[in-house]
Amino acid sequence: PRSTLFPYTTLFRSEGLEGGGTRNALVVECFAGMGGLKQALDLLGFEPAGVIAIDNSPECSRIYRQHCRHAIWIQDITTITEAQVIEWRRRFPKVTQVILAGGWPCVNHSLLNVHRQGAEGATSKLLDGMLQIRQWLKECSRKLNLPEWKLVEMYENVVMDDGDFKVQTKKIGFLPYFMEAAQLGRCRRPRLYWLSGDRKSVV
Asked: How many CB atoms lie within 10 A of CB 106?
């Protein structure tokens, strides 16, 4: 049953809190999949005022909406425009903080893929769309004479070769942290996380 799978968000729905938000924050989850970030925030008791989820999978969209019915779903990150981002700002005038997070597709970075095309591969360049959203998030408030949003940034990807690492890190603008899941569990999953902003305000 849904209450077993999603106990926290079911509680929010039953008490009429879904979409009301406990924090003046907007979550923009790029390459959202089934909503791993939103589920993690639920476990922390962090219920944002709004959620923008971006992913091209219809199956993921259906699952995401089961635990976050008020999410605004966008299918293609490359079609998002500045006007849409300005509309997000207009729709959430009381929001003071935005969490922009996501892991762009890793298929052309993965060292396990002998046919990888590296940072020049089409999927690797989807990071550019996420970074364009970042720029619009920084600029949209001024265009509506509203206070600027505080931005928390989280980017994730696999450990990649030096060439790809330098290209993508230069685009992002700051160095990542290395984390290995095997340090906490039984599965090896070495990953890079580029983090910026006041993350303490999230937890």
From this structure: 20
